[in-house]
Amino acid sequence: MPFGTLNEKDFFGRREELSDLYRRALQTEQGIAQSVFLSGLRGIGKTELLKQLFGHLFWKQDRVVPFYYSINNALLSVEDFSRDYVTRYICQRLAFEKKEQAFLNLDGLSIEGLSSIVEGSRAAWAREILDRYAQNSGKPVDSLRVAFGAPHQSTLSSGKPVVVLIDEFQRLKNLHIGSAVDPQLVSLFEVPLSFKETLHVITGNEAEIKEMSVSAGLARVTVPPLGFEDAAQQFLSVLRAYGSTMNAVPDAVVQHLGGNPFYLRCMAAAAGLKQNREEKDFWTAYLQEITNGNIYLYWSSVLKNFFPDMGLRKNVLEITYKMFHTQESLPEEKIAEAFPASGARAEAIVRALHHTAFIQGEFGVFRTPEDKVLADFINCLYMRVILGISPHDIEKGFLEQQSEETTTRGAAFEMTLPMVREAELVAARCLEQIGKNLRIPEEAVGQLQIAVIEACINALEHSKGGEKKIYLRFDVTEDRMEASIESSGREFVVQETGEPFIGKKLADDFGRGWGVKLMKRFTDSVRFEKTSRGTKVVLVKNLPKTAGAYKEGGTDGE
Amino acid sequence: MSNFSLSLKTDQDIVVIVPKGYVNDLGAESLEHASEQVLDRGLKKLVVNFSDMQYINSIGASVFIGIVQKTIENEGQLCFTNMKKVHHDVFEMLGITKHVKVFKEERDAVSFLNEKA
Fold first, then answer.
1. Is the ipTM reported for this complex over the cut 0.85?
2. CB nearest to A512's CB, from B59, B65, B85
3. Does the predicted model carry a pTM greater than 0.95?
């Protein structure tokens, strides 16, 4: 596989996303391409997905030409970028046509060197691009236009459509002519993105790309976290690469990593090196990862990159620590109060904080992401840097807390439902069985069923055009049941109120306004969250403190 | 295949409607249609026996508001019986239980209606 891509056998849980993108790529042949913005959390595997897509398009078909380009921070002068983009495009297309992987790795090839390669081939399309590029030499904006348009130009010349895969797209806003950065230069990309015969799939830092006007008209494909099974397989695959013979990883460890392939690989590598066996060993390895390992290096470099000033970094730690602990959504102005700045400067700081992905949100309201690893990283860094707690005491406290959680842990059930009529009934019946297995009072189960049915119906109604699935999770502990219902609904929550959005048509339909009222009436807490998948409703039902309210593994007659 | 079915039985001038399964929009439409037909035939004493109703959603529950209104317009009498507490709470929340008589068992409702002229 090119570009350091994982072997297919080590690439878990992305079959659907890959098929979807592959299908879109082949549709380019019909001249109906709609360029795509691949969104998802940091570390979720967007880059790997792009590379896998390139590999599939490169080896498994010859109808559309794939072109993969990762924007390089060191090549952001318009002259350097244009030359590199044109050179790499021509090389990759020649490689594709000859099925010759060596052409993919011609780093540092000059235009002259490329010209002689092209002369020796029958690639008229390449000569045409190089001629255009030469004609605009010395005119940076025009040569940039030629570069951006090169894939499409080759389609017009050869009749063969192109699929352009661009990683780290947000870096284009730092294109510069001489030493002057001009964020407007990237707007030249609007024209190529609109071509129907050339599909562009872009990805990178979600928060930054969403602020770029060129991304406004793009279709959005979300890369979700890996499901539990795929996450566990990914973990085991890396463990085995380190010579481990383990067949299973503690569920709690896998769950804690939130289906994030980057975390899974880091943790599995750390655990593999130490040949861990017991759950406690895994948590020890985890703690080392978030305080001193690759996960620590990753997040601390993100922090330093956006906040080079040590004083501001401390402010970031304080406010994000607070937000992770309270789980509050805060308006931009409130977050800005944590920093010694006001006006435009304060706005820029909050925007930078958003770009780190330590917080997420829209319309000026932010909350911390659902990322336990990031929360732990912030927590440990806060304790060390702000509170001055020693690494030894941090470790002791963390391991004690994990040990306590291990002993009080309850049961968790996950399922994925297709968005079909009455899918909510499947959820309700599963909940009933869970209630029976764990001897939960019928009344509490019945009440939660009503709320879950309503949440599922909302998911069905608000996910038009998105992923046609509902992800459910039921967590049961001694004192409560929690149900989370997640789907790709985009307009489900009204930002100002945090309440679900009921469209006019639905509101007009008799009775449809009662769903949320029922959810609230029959549970102790209802929370609406924006997630990487879309929207999640979290319903919590407290259980009465009576004997037999929860017994894991308990069945009738025991 | 639908997860809802409906049966009706008549006891002199009393009609007992027994919804079964999941009362959602479609199920509630059938219920509304059935009750309208009963009222249109001049029968004014209705009992809805919920013993076989497993689940209900907000749309299903709110359609009962229409059934209550139709019954009142026709000067009829509507009784609910054999309700689980959670379903009673749903109807209570929607304000429906203020307009119907609720009995524990079907026979209690039938006795009550038989005593009425």
1. yes
2. B59
3. no
